[in-house]
Amino acid sequence: MAERPDRPARDDRAPRSGTPKRGGPPRSSGAPQRDGAPRRDGDAPRSSGSPRRDGDAPRSFGAPRRDGDARRDVAPRRDGAGYRGARPAGAGRPDRPNRPEGDNDRPRHDDPDIPETVSGQELDRIARNELKTLAKENADRVAQHLVMAGLLIDDEPALAHRHAQAAARRAGRIALTRETLAITAYAVGDYALALRELRTYRRISGSNEQLPLMVDCERGLGRPEKGLELGRSVDRRTLAVATRVELAIAMSGARLDLGQSGEALTELEIPQLDAGTAFSYSPGLFDTYAIVLAELGRHDEADEWGRRADVAASALAAVGLDDGDETIEILEEEAEADGDDER
């Protein structure tokens, strides 16, 4: 979870080296992990500049147009573009002399380079299956770009975003590529593009599992009310448990954006707020609960839940569970009172 300058200080907390990732439900796809991307301290996500709103900027990232988005009625027409009859004899595409051998395979854009060590086979089986509708050579190239996006998202998000753009250009009708593009757009602070791509992903896949990130995008665009409306639009019982937790965290942040600290705490009081067990989502949930408690001035309780977040993170790290559904039971021994052993 990213640290923020306005986050209540808890200097007594132990560092979380090797803390498991907390970025939503376990992912079987090749899309990069969000890795705790939604801001947990109640502040809306911020980019280096003012975030662009839908429609405020041209499609500078080369994202594929959504169905029905292209304005073909006003686009200039090329010669013969509207011809629907049979082509006259000899009217096929002219040969292009002096073209380098293999140039037909070159992308139309300046795609980022892919190291020779990345084959695309690094994607798991489910992700590879999504690409089977593509021609093999194209599927392999898309897979390579997706792998690179996943490898770079944490340290070089801008370059990861370029790889995601390249994958989406080559496979714009594949849900996985649009999801990946949305995640990298979020990582570079382009919340408008991220939201558009998440809507497209949702339409193609029929999945609501990225709803928490959509709520955070609305927050990033300065529209927490819309984020709350969006979060309430889906029956949470239809979502994976980890997604419900992520949604509760995002909704709590939107409440804080509106100055509704009490309601922000209520959003987090869900069955998964159980200090006696630890899942991959538990440290983030406990930590967020601690932050909201501190916002309400309940500092002793905030410190306790911050400590519980550390305990859960340590327990998960000790058994190497990052994304699994296995339950870890947390047993805490009560400290013996001073003088118990005195005779």
Oligomer: single chain
Helical content band: 40-55%
Described by strand count, sense and barrel closure, the largest sheet is: 2 strands, antiparallel
Unreliable runs: 1-31, 33-44, 46-88, 96-104, 333-343
Summing up helix and strand content along with how strands pair, one would put the structural category as mainly alpha
Average predicted local confidence, pLDDT: 76
Please give the order of strands in the largest beta sheet: 1-2
What's the helix-strand series? Answer: HHHHHHHHHEHHE
What separation lies between the terminal Cα atoms? 48 Å
Radius of gyration: 24 Å
Percent range for β-strand residues: under 5%
Assign an overall shape.
globular
Number of helices: 11
Q: How many individual β-strands?
A: 2
Descriptive keywords:
343 residues; mainly alpha; 42% helix; disordered N terminus
Structure explained in plain terms:
- With 343 residues, the chain is an all-alpha fold.
- The protein has helices at 125-130, 136-152, 157-170, 175-187, 191-205, 211-220, 224-232, 241-257, 261-268, 282-295, 299-319; strands at residues 277-278, 328-329.
- Helix 8 (241-257) runs parallel beside helix 10.
Question: How is this structure best summarized?
Answer:
It is built from 11 helices and 2 strands; from the N terminus they run H-H-H-H-H-H-H-H-H-E-H-H-E. With 343 residues, it is mainly α.
How is the topology of this model organized?
Layout: H1 125-130, H2 136-152, H3 157-170, H4 175-187, H5 191-205, H6 211-220, H7 224-232, H8 241-257, H9 261-268, E1 277-278, H10 282-295, H11 299-319, E2 328-329
Antiparallel strand pairs: 1-2
Helix pairs in contact: 2-3, 3-4, 4-5, 5-6, 6-7, 6-8, 7-8, 8-9, 8-10, 9-10, 10-11
